[in-house]
Amino acid sequence: MSIIDRYYSRVTDILDEAFRQEAEHMEAAAQAIAQANRTGHSVFAFGCNHAGLITLELFYRTGGMVTINPVRAPGMMLEVSPITMSSEIERIPGYGRTIFQGLPAKEGDVILIHSVSGRNAVTIDMAEAAKEKGLCVIVITNMNTSTKVTSRHPEGKKLYDFADILLDNHGDFGDATVALDGFEQKLASSSTVVGAAMLNAVTARASEILWEAGIQPPVFMSGNVDGGDAYNKAVIAAHKENIFYM
Predict the structure, then answer these.
(1) Angle, nearest 10°, between helix axes 23-38 and 191-212?
(2) What pLDDT score was predicted for residue 109?
(3) What pLDDT is recorded for position 239?
(4) How high is the pLDDT of residue 48?
(5) What CATH architecture applies to the domain 3-242?
(6) 92 φ/ψ sector (left φ>0, alpha ψ -120 to 50, else beta)
(7) Tens digits of per-residue pLDDT, 26-67?
(8) Per-residue pLDDT at 145
(9) 38, 212 Cβ separation under 8 angstroms
(10) What is the per-residue DSSP string for the chain?
């Protein structure tokens, strides 16, 4: 079997396992997001560096929820040079609290926080600050990795310690998935593929819950189809009180 086929096989196996074993937690996450939309609360999404790619996947995307607000901060989105700085910045104690304090977040809001390892200070501090504020904290992490690595948080905590709802992406240890004979480091991560699929499914379910309750889901239409721009302008205006990225 070629390495392309092996990667495809491993990722589809992980997806199948995650969707089956996390179904109850994914439903809980969807219910929380739908409830926030029903009650005029806000939804935020955050991840450091490559974990933040899922934030971008959920944000300003065709078929995605208009009301999901990306949390972006200096050094957190792979924009620094040298890029090795990004790994150091996500370990800075207190920075996650500083980022969170700059958000217009209130009790009853929801925040999605993604980290494969769940060991670094920024995401942990942000989750802890969000819990203290009364937000519902949805964590997506790799428990096969996070439970096997040491914490880099000053208090020895992990991201999953602060989860109201925990989504395990069921990835391999260290996230990479396929091996070459005689080469120690495995190749090709799964977390972005699996995490994006899980959270797209969660937000789709949240929209379904709203629709079943007689509420029009706040989702984007493609700006590249006729009528898309007008549709998006109207849905943004309808939810402007819970949109902070415009």
Answers:
(1) 50
(2) 98
(3) 96
(4) 96
(5) 3-Layer(aba) Sandwich (3.40)
(6) beta
(7) 999 999 999 999 999 999 999 999 999 999 999 999 999 999
(8) 97
(9) no
(10) --HHHHHHHHHHHHHHHHHHHTHHHHHHHHHHHHHHHHTT--EEEEESGGGGHHHHHHSS-BTSBTTEEE---TTSSS--SSTHHHHHHTT-TTHHHHHHHTS---TT-EEEEE-SS--SHHHHHHHHHHHHHT-EEEEEE-HHHHTTS---STT---GGGG-SEEEE--PPTTSEEE--TT-SS-EEE-HHHHHHHHHHHHHHHHHHHHHHTT----BBPPTTSTTHHHHHHHHHHHTGGG----
Given a cut of 50, the residues of the chain with pLDDT beneath it are none
Cα separation of 56 and 51, whole Å? 10
Cβ 120 vs Cβ 48: under 8 Å = yes
What pairing do the DSSP bridges indicate for beta strands 187-189 and 136-141?
unpaired
Q: State residue 179's pLDDT score.
A: 95
Tell me which amino acid residue 78 is.
L
